[in-house]
Design goal:
Largest interface: A-B, 66 and 52 residues
Number of strands of chain B: 4
Largest sheet of chain A: 6 strands, mixed
Distance between the termini of chain A: 49 Å
Strand content of chain A: 15-25%
Largest sheet of chain B: 2 strands, antiparallel
Number of strands of chain A: 20
Radius of gyration of chain A: 25 Å
Oligomer: heterodimer
Radius of gyration of chain B: 26 Å
Number of helices of chain A: 19
Structural class of chain A: alpha/beta
Shape of chain A: globular
Chain lengths: ~550, ~300
């Protein structure tokens, strides 16, 4: 049965009348369907989703119709609209209104004037279903990002919506929390039959389970089909959204294979096994090994210890690290293990109480005043918005230096030409990240520290960002990056370290590092491990495949 | 957070107790009543926080000493002059009065400390929610914003330090300039986020109907019992004050009402009122040890 019908919807924002944010969009969504909406940032996904929730619909020129259960959506009553259509947004923090978990859970029901007894049951039900009982009485500020987003979801589910709309709900979460969250969404869909419409960058976790995928570009729907049929369309059209597809799909099409598209690692492994029934001739690629001795490290840490308070637990417990000059050094590891703290102590924002730090051969405490941050170290914070203090991107850059030539150089490197007059808050996540990077680079660092730089970026921006990092490396800048994003590290880093329990456990080149791991590794490695010994990226697998097939 | 026996009662019970205690503490200057009050506050404070009690008590003692000694300097009334300082009389009565006022100060601070332990933010918001739901919601939102503001301010300052624009700049003028920039950034961040929060509220039907409130606390039989008992005690003590049985004057002449058989009831009622949280605390401890013993 038809739940939502969008008919020839065209929309443009008042400030840009000529460009249509939505262009003749027609979509039917059935009751209980799980639909994933994908596309580059700025392709009109959020605009489309907001039209489905009338109170959040943007102002502008709108043509076309949206029907909910066969009735025009504008004719829905306020109460029906609030209760029946749930909307979860991107940022876990800002959506939370009250200070206590229980209060947040009850917020929607309170708004609808729900009776005390019914409200108690519904809240209790939600707390149980989402496993919130244990932190039911907690302050919201003590929760992790994943818990916050789960709370947002639960507080909306408490109103028992028929349709759940999620706008990039996991972009601010770490991979584990993100896949937990997506599992919960799937559970809601399967167990409660709630219709789900979700936009997501992380298609790996979601593509195999969705009923339908809709791909948007420039406000138009360019593909609307079952997930297994989407990749072929994109590949044939040579669309760059193909790069956002799950790894098995990318390998499958890049090797010009025919047949049924593998969507999961399991299917990918089966397909590879069929392709290589006999052991392949070339089962590994040549890689550089780690050099044992680094003569002139850009950064050297020896036995670094740190804790926040006198009586609290140690966060860093004897970190040893050696970063060769001119390299991209990635540190991976779980959430809350102290990776960000490590970067802060390299900047001397967190002062270590034991151990030593040498930056370009000079001890950290030998740097006086601002010396450390002028032409030496700079850090890009996790949330790029923390760096924005002015009204336009141009002013942001001029805050750092008055030298116009340097500024135009940096604008070139970070590709932010078109953003200069915009307000930094109006930019998309990827654009904000590049603007913040430009600001940091104007400090002329020789050692650049990046804290989760790919958080919230879509695959297209990620590729661009990887290119920018490579460019910087070629200019002699040493980069230390902390990240959850193993795929990005495998593709772009020179060295990868595993951070766990306040220490760096192993360091190696990406190929050696990820091929030694079985769980904490890239999708490509998990998929091809039984055939190829050290292929960790899509390119590696494709290369070995073609080499063996003699192409 | 630790769970205290008295905190397990309904917020209204807690509120009645603390309000009455604060009022009586300020109103009654009678030394015997004051001793009872002091004992009550010290015992309960100690029960709630054994570890930090000593350091707090020492600080309060200094405060008491200070208030006692300073009063005669400001207030020169009184018949028995001890000595003259800066050409002004330093009187015994004023010294005693200073001591009494100091004691009241210390006692109120002690009770305030207990209040903070017992009366969590939740309860405060709850009391408003019954008759002023909007105020309660605003309070709850403010309590949500405070920690996130602190967090964000730290983040912005940290981010700026790491690009060489830290608060610890070379000159004082620079530091102030940097601090204003951080503050400005914090404000624009807050404004930006309030838009999202507003959307989130709208999406969940805020403002379309009269709000109901989710009640975390419910009146039970023991709550009613305690309220009735407390009201009775408060009434007796109030009568005792109004009829002048708890009267005490120190300047210019020390004049204190005598407590005898005719008016001892008021004093006893006061003692019982003060002992309520202590008795509840002990009762729970004992019943727990008994049930543990049975196991």
């Amino acid at each position: 049965m038809e739940h939502i019908r969008i008919q020839n919807l065209t929309f443009s924002y008042p400030q840009s009348k000529d460009t249509k944010s939505l262009d003749n969009v027609s979509i039917n969504i059935d009751r209980g369907e799980y639909v994933v909406l994908c596309g580059k940032s700025g392709s009109g996904k959020t605009t489309l989703l907001r039209h489905l929730k009338t109170v959040l619909a943007p102002h502008g020129i709108k043509q076309g119709y949206i029907y909910y259960n066969g009735k025009p959506i504008d004719e829905m009553g306020d109460e029906e609209q609030a209760g029946k259509i749930g909307y979860v947004m991107q940022n876990p923090d800002d959506q939370i209104v009250t200070d206590k978990v229980w209060h947040e859970l009850a917020f929607g029901l309170e708004s609808l004037g729900c009776e005390q007894k019914i409200m108690r049951t519904k809240v209790a039900e939600m707390a149980c279903y989402f496993g919130i009982q244990n932190w039911f009485h907690s302050d919201v500020s003590t929760l992790s990002g994943g818990q916050k987003q789960l709370l947002n979801l639960a507080s909306i589910m408490a109103m028992q919506p028929e349709i759940l709309i999620l706008d990039e709900p996991t972009s601010q979460l770490d991979p584990i929390a993100a896949s937990d969250f997506l599992d919960t969404i799937r559970k809601i869909n399967v167990e409660l039959g709630t219709t789900i419409i979700i936009t997501e960058h992380r298609l790996e976790d979601i593509f195999p389970y969705a009923d339908r995928a809709i791909v948007m570009e420039g406000g138009k729907v360019i593909a609307d089909d079952a997930p297994c049929n989407i990749p072929k369309k994109l590949y044939d059209a040579n669309n760059h959204m193909f790069n956002a597809m799950p790894t098995p799909v990318k390998i499958f099409y890049n090797t010009d294979s025919k047949g049924e598209t593998p969507l999961t690692v399991r299917e990918g492994r089966r397909w590879l096994s069929r392709e290589f029934e006999t052991k392949p001739k070339f089962n590994s690629i040549d890689v550089d090994n780690m050099e044992d001795e680094v003569s002139n490290p850009a950064l050297l840490l020896k036995e670094l210890w740190f804790r926040y308070e006198k009586d609290s637990q140690d966060i860093l417990r004897g970190v040893d690290m050696c970063v060769p000059e001119g390299s991209l050094y990635a540190i991976v590891g779980g959430n809350g293990t102290g990776k960000s703290t490590l970067l802060k102590s390299i900047c001397n924002i967190c002062k270590s109480y034991r151990g030593k730090i040498k930056v370009f051969g000079k001890k950290l405490d030998k740097y006086k005043g601002c010396e450390l941050f002028s032409n030496c170290i700079s850090m890009l914070p996790q949330d790029p918005v923390s760096l924005f203090v002015k009204k336009s991107v141009r002013e942001e850059l001029f805050e750092m230096t008055k030298d116009e030539k340097r500024i135009s150089d940096i604008i070139e490197i970070c590709q932010i030409n078109e953003l200069l007059e915009k307000h930094p808050y109006d930019l998309s996540g990827g654009e904000q990240q590049r603007t913040a990077l430009a600001k940091v680079l104007l400090n002329n660092p020789r050692l650049l520290l990046l804290d989760e730089p790919t958080k919230g970026m879509d695959s297209f921006f990620k590729d661009e960002f990887g290119g920018i990092l490579k460019d910087l490396k070629d200019r002699g800048i040493t980069i230390v990056m902390v990240s959850h994003d193993v795929e990005f590290c495998a593709k772009n880093a020179d060295y990868v370290s595993m951070f766990f329990d306040g220490q760096i456990l192993t360091t190696n080149t990406p190929n050696n590092f990820f091929s030694n791991n079985c769980f904490y590794t890239t999708v490509a490695s998990r998929m091809s491990k039984h055939i190829f010994s050290n292929a960790v990226t899509v390119e590696d697998v494709v290369y070995l495949y073609n080499k063996n097939k003699g192409a | 957070m630790k769970q205290y026996a008295f905190a397990g009662y309904h917020p209204v019970v807690n509120l009645i107790f603390f309000l009455s205690i604060f009022c009586f503490s300020v109103l009654i200057q009678h030394p015997v009543y004051l001793v009872a009050n002091g004992l009550g506050s010290v015992i309960y404070c100690f029960m709630l926080e054994k570890k930090r009690f000593l350091s707090k008590a020492i600080k309060l003692f200094y405060l008491l000493l200070f208030l006692t000694l300073i009063n005669p300097l400001l207030n020169t009334r009184g018949d028995s002059v001890l000595f003259r300082i800066f050409g002004r009389p330093y009187t015994l009565e004023a010294l005693v009065y200073g001591f009494v006022v100091g004691c009241i100060f210390v006692v109120v601070l002690m009770w305030l400390d207990c209040y903070n332990q017992i009366f969590a933010r939740d309860k405060f918001v709850f009391l408003f929610s019954s008759f002023m739901p909007t105020i309660a919601l605003i309070l709850s939102m403010i309590f949500r914003l405070i920690p996130s503001f602190q967090d964000k301010a730290g983040q912005i300052a940290g981010a700026r330090t790491a690009i060489g624009k830290g608060l610890e700049a070379s000159s004082k003028k620079d530091s102030i300039k940097q601090a204003t920039i951080v503050l400005g950034a914090l404000v624009s961040w807050a404004l930006e986020n309030s838009v999202v929060t507003g959307d989130s509220m709208k999406a969940r039907g805020y403002g379309i109907k009269k709000r109901s409130t989710f009640k975390m606390y419910h009146m039970t039989f023991r709550d009613w019992l305690l309220i009735i008992a407390m009201c009775l005690l408060i009434w007796i003590v109030t009568v005792s004050i109004v009829t002048g049985n708890a009267r005490a004057e120190f300047v210019p002449k020390i004049d204190i009402a005598v407590i005898d058989e005719s008016n001892i009831l008021g004093f006893i009622a006061y003692c019982v009122l003060l002992a309520i949280p202590i008795l509840i605390h002990i009762k729970e401890k004992v019943s727990w040890s008994i049930s543990e013993y049975k196991i």
